[in-house]
Amino acid sequence: MKVKVISILEDNYMYLVIEEQSKQAIAVDPAVPHRLLEIVKREGLFLIAVLTTHYHWDHARGNEALVNEVPGLKVYGADDRIKGLTDKVTDSQELKFNSINVKCLFTPCHTSGDMCYYVWEDECTDAPAVFTGDTLFIGGCGRFLEGTAEQMHHNLTKVIASLPQETKVFCGHENTIKNLKFALLVEPENEKVKEMLSWARARDDDDKPTVPSTLQEEFDYNPFLRLSEKAVQKFTGKMEPVEVMRVLRKEMDKFKKPKERLPPQAMLALQWGLLMSSQDRLSPVIKDGD
């Protein structure tokens, strides 16, 4: 089983899970269908199914186009609001695509119909994968748009945390640096956070994705999985795990990552460029007034 990471839109990811022997592929959240089909064609793959984590347009927008383009394509999801849905799935339901197995994990909170997908291959020693959409991010978690802290606590500490620790985490967005800056604010002495933030910045400089992480790694630096740690409790002023989760998310919602300060020469060039751009925009107005 091979997972192809595809960057789309501003910071989204869509994925192709490929059974290398048969060249059959399963797409996860293919919001840019033409790009997906280009990759499928270029690599000689056969697209047989789509797994949709939730109905938001930046995850499900491509479903209808793909159904129209690929005869017999199955689109799986847990929410009737998902466009192009052909097969509605339920919690713990298992799907099988030749040697690839998928277990559906119902994780309502970000939306009321969120579903994560735990994927593994028969007789394969490679680590399994979980596609978490906007539920679990590297170093963070999704907003509670249609749910509660109680639900997210259950999703992260009971559902996802029950998976094998070596499970690879493939999330829906590249927001790792912001998440880790917040994690450092929560736990300023956490060396794992510092190491991961340095690594993520280097990946960003090279324009490379930070996915996947592993569940074991997330427990080392993701504050939303570290609710019983003293530093996290001190930051929130709470001890009960759900209340810690609630305060963490409220603080994360207000958090703005500190801006990377540009060197003086770059700031001068930027200011000069903005000044010249402003003059260029004004000059036609001046001429019209002459």
Notes on the protein architecture:
The protein has ten helices and 14 strands. With 290 residues, the protein is an alpha/beta fold. It has a single domain (1-256), classed as Ribonuclease Z/Hydroxyacylglutathione hydrolase-like (Metallo-beta-lactamase, Chain A). α4 packs across α9 and α5 (176-186) packs antiparallel against α6. It starts with a strand and ends with a helix.
Q: Describe the sheet with the most strands.
A: 6 strands, mixed
- Bulk shape: globular
Number of domains: 1
List low-confidence stretches: 266-271, 273-290
β-strand percent reads 15-25%
CATH fold call: Metallo-beta-lactamase, Chain A
Brief rundown of the structure:
The protein is built from ten helices and 14 strands.
Sequence-ordered SSE layout with sheet pairings:
Elements lengths: L1 E7 L3 E8 L4 E5 L4 H10 L3 E6 L5 H4 L2 H7 L4 E4 L9 E2 L5 E4 L2 E7 L8 E7 L7 E5 L2 E2 L2 E2 L7 H11 L8 E4 L4 H11 L4 H15 L7 E2 H7 L8 H7 L4 H14 L9 H26 L1
Parallel strand pairs: 3-4, 4-5, 5-6, 10-13
Antiparallel strand pairs: 1-2, 2-3, 7-8, 8-9, 9-10, 11-12, 13-14
Features:
globular, disordered C terminus, metal-binding, single chain, alpha/beta, 6-stranded mixed β-sheet, Metallo-beta-lactamase, Chain A, 290 residues
